[in-house]
């Protein structure tokens, strides 16, 4: 007496009743009208999804351990990078046409070691403290660079003076609301000129576990994932800022890593722990660049001829389409 149907079934040896399904297959959180209840049920649904995913992962791992060497290879996870839409301008390293263009472009004297980079770093008019400190730290990263601050002088007047003083490149750091937000890089004397949007700027004091101040040794330069014709031009432009022959004894390396058309800059020092183990120590500063335009010749905002302009509404139709 007093025993329910589940209790009587268990006493007679029958299997227990199945557990109540928390979320039926046709369950939709959006159907719940109460906002608080909807949010609570959504969190529980996410928790259940995570548990199921973790259980499936453990099951696959046990199956692989049981099969041993006969286990099939792990599937390659799908990412935005490996699902990239093919670009017809992707550069083949063995292409004769590309080799000819590189031998005759504006950066050929640098790669032929006929010119030594000499960089002028300047700012927008009346820079604030953060932009000033960023320029000073950038000058310690780029060898043979000089910082001068503009006092209402137009870029069209600065460029002839730079050419007369044998500067090979001009870097202009723009700011908005006291934060650096743009970089203009003009290769002298004949261009091209690239305009980048700058973000995620971190000075040395803002980076955790930074090393000592960088030395005056010429750093090694690493360029990653500049695969298209446009990316190839931008990569050569960035490489021409640094002297061609690095001093490896300084153990310093400047990296321009292109990922989904965002160029991440990092400045590190190698730390050799033993003959087989090596670590890296970030020195700073760090920042991220996004190409907005590439212009033929030197800076000319009114009558300049543009090779490439980023048009957001026309070019950003697919997340898997990249231009660099």
UniProtKB/TrEMBL annotation:
Highest taxon listed in the record's lineage: Eukaryota
GO cellular component terms given for this protein: nucleolus; preribosome, large subunit precursor
Pfam families reported in the protein's UniProt record: Brix (PF04427)
Subcellular locations according to the entry: Nucleus, Nucleolus
Listed SMART domains: Brix
Family annotation (SUPFAM superfamilies): Class II aaRS ABD-related
Keywords on record: Ribosome biogenesis, rRNA processing
Residue ranges constituting the Brix domain according to the UniProt record: 117-300
A GO term, aspect molecular function: rRNA primary transcript binding
Annotated spans, Disordered: 1-22, 47-82
Keyword rRNA processing carried by entry: yes
GO-annotated biological processes: maturation of 5.8S rRNA; maturation of LSU-rRNA
Feature: compositional bias, Basic and acidic residues: 63-72
Matching PANTHER family: RIBOSOME PRODUCTION FACTOR 1, U3 SMALL NUCLEOLAR RIBONUCLEOPROTEIN PROTEIN IMP4
Its job: May be required for ribosome biogenesis.
Name of this protein: Ribosome production factor 1
Species of the source: Atlantisia rogersi
UniProt lineage: Eukaryota, Metazoa, Chordata, Craniata, Vertebrata
Gene responsible for this protein: Rpf1
């Amino acid at each position: 007496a007093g025993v329910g149907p589940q209790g009587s079934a268990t006493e007679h040896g029958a299997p227990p009743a199945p557990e109540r399904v928390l979320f039926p297959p046709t369950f939709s959180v959006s159907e719940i009208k109460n906002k608080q209840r909807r949010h609570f049920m959504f969190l529980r649904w996410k928790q259940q999804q995570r548990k199921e995913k973790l259980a499936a992962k453990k099951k696959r791992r046990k199956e692989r351990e049981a099969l041993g060497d006969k286990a099939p290879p792990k599937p390659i996870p799908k990412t935005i990078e490996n699902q990239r839409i093919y670009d017809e301008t992707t550069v083949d390293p063995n292409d004769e046409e590309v080799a000819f263009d590189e031998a005759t472009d504006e950066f050929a004297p640098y790669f032929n070691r006929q010119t030594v980079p000499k960089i002028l770093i300047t700012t927008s008019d009346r820079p604030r403290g953060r932009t000033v400190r960023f320029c000073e730290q950038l000058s310690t990263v780029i060898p043979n660079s000089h910082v001068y601050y503009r006092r209402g002088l137009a870029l069209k007047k600065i460029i002839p003076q730079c050419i007369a003083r044998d500067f090979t490149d001009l870097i202009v750091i723009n700011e908005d609301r006291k934060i650096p937000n743009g970089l203009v890089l003009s290769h002298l004397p004949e261009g091209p000129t690239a305009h980048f949007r700058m973000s995620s700027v971190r000075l040395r004091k803002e980076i955790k576990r930074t090393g000592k101040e960088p030395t005056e040794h010429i750093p090694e330069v690493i360029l990653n994932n500049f695969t298209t014709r446009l990316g190839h031009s931008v990569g050569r432009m960035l490489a021409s800022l640094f002297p061609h022959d690095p001093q490896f004894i300084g153990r310093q390396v400047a990296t321009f890593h292109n990922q989904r058309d965002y160029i991440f800059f990092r400045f590190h020092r190698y730390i050799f722990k033993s003959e087989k183990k090596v670590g890296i120590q970030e020195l700073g500063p760090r920042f991220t660049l996004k190409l907005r335009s590439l212009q033929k010749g030197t800076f000319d905002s009114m009558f300049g001829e543009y090779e490439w302009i980023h048009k957001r509404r026309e070019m950003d139709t697919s997340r898997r389409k990249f231009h660099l």
